Amino acid sequence: MWILIPVILLIGFLAPNETLDINIHDTYYVISLIHLAELVSILFGITGLGYWIILKLNRKLINVLTLSHAIITIGGSAILLLTPTFFSHYSTETSFPKFDYLVEQNMMNLLALLLIVLGLLFFIINILQSLFRRKETMVKNK
After folding, report:
1. CA pair distance 41, 129, nearest whole angstrom
2. Residue 60: helix, strand or coil by DSSP?
3. What is the CB-side half-sphere exposure of residue 60 using CA atoms within 13 A?
């Protein structure tokens, strides 16, 4: 996870003019891509720290949950970071974008955020089960 942090920040810095447009209750939020990249980098840093702590405590994680968490979180983050790029042709510099064009973008953002939350649930379940599961002791035969 930690290796992805510089890559995501590089994506955010290379496309600084891209924005994410969210229409919530007649309010129009505009979020810069660099801020999304920073948010996802912090998310990856925290999850990487959690996995590192579990590794240092010599606890065993469930491999299926670890792999599922990584794939779902990376996929959701990729969708969230690339959505403004896919829908940027709808907005122009001279006019305010129409809300009709934001339906697909908002659905993609919602899908990405739901995937990230699902990945975080897998992460939390995996960390908690590794902390509260008893360590298996080796029984020596005499």
Report:
1. 25
2. coil
3. 6
Whether the CB-CB separation of 4 and 74 falls below 8 Å is answered with yes
Over its length of 142 residues, how does the chain's per-residue pLDDT go in tens digits?
677 778 777 777 776 566 666 666 666 666 677 777 788 888 888 888 999 999 998 888 989 999 999 899 888 888 877 766 555 555 555 455 555 566 677 777 788 888 888 999 999 999 999 988 876 654 555 5
* Cα angle 61, 114, 43; round to 5: 55
Largest CA distance in the chain: 83
End-to-end CA separation in angstroms for the chain: 44
Structure token pair of residue 98: 């129409």
Q: Say what the pTM is.
A: 0.68
Strand pairing class (27-32; 19-24): antiparallel
CB atoms within 10 A of CB 12: 21
Q: Are 32 and 88 in contact (CB under 8 A)?
A: no
Closest CA to 47 of 24, 28, 65: 65
Q: Residues 6, 51: contact at Cβ < 8 Å?
A: no
